[in-house]
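Ticket #4471: structure export looks truncated?
Reporter: QA, pipeline team
Priority: medium

Steps to reproduce: submit the single chain below to the structure queue and open the exported record.
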Amino acid sequence: MPDPVGILVDQRVLRRALRGRATLERVSLYRSIAQKDLNIDIVVFAVEHVDVRRHTVRGYVPTATGWRRVRMTVPSVVHKRVLYRESFPLRTLRRLEQRGVIFVNPIKIQDKKRMAALLARSPARNHLPPTASYSWRRLQAMLDDGESAVLKPRVGSLGQGVIRVSPVDARRVEIVIRSRRIVSRSGLRRLLRARRGARRYILQRYVPLATYQGRPFDLRVPVQRDGNGSWVIPGIVAKVARKHPFLTNMAQGASAIPGEQALAAAFGKDASHVIHRVKELALHVARAVSDAHRYAGDLGLDVGVDRSGKPWLFEVNTRDQRYTFERAGLLDAFRALYRNPLAYCASLAKNQTPSGR
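Actual output as written to the record:
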């Protein structure tokens, strides 16, 4: 018998889910898919419940009506659905990895600069906006050339900390954080020093996006491994900026609609060609990431499409926020987003010796 598949989630999410409270990570959906679709055993746990010395974990296994708490050996394959930056959880996962535990996705691959460098050697390179580490000199050069720029934290999510800067004239710029305002270049430099603190930023050329009903949108394109280990794209959702001038993150007030609907409105009869290019780009990215990180298997790409129909890769998310598909009414795709990586983990577990033994 193969090990149960482990599902690693945030401790707060797990607590809420066990109490029957709403969470963005649908823990109950894992139970349904494991029991009804795949007929596999799973255990859901948080990193705080791992005993590294004994190589055991206190987790929760599904029953007919809910969950039962157990203590067991750490599963040999774990679907990682949480991002860590603190040393304690990262150290714990690395020690488990050294004992043979496989993590899908790998422990830490969310640094935007490193991801850009990795993809620059792949067929996706022609779809990457020019990107570099932030420096005041680089930003000034872009503004002098008449280009708009976007500053992003190297490690971050949900659109937090993102700033767009556009030249107005030789001495002034327009900045967009939550709203637009005009400042001098010297004022911009002071503002950036104050906001950045110890955080490291990347500098990316701004890409004017195609619009839906007059509002810019980009696409969330999940690309996952299924039970055969093949890369698949369950669907595409468009995130339409609403409350923010240009950010399309749901956390910034965007709305979600089917990707085909947004692309059809923007490109008419050419929409099918744009969709093909978007999917081709997504598969190039997935293969490049998995060449460097063997057990990458659940990625969410942020892809912008410019007004000519060319797709641009903005970000590779290693903890895809799947709820956008539910909000867009794409319920079959929403379920598939949970099913595919679970099936992939189950296929890996069949071929693994129980970990730590």
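Status: closed, not a bug. The export was complete when the record was re-opened. Leaving a note from the reviewer for reference: DSSP finds ten helices and 20 strands in the chain.
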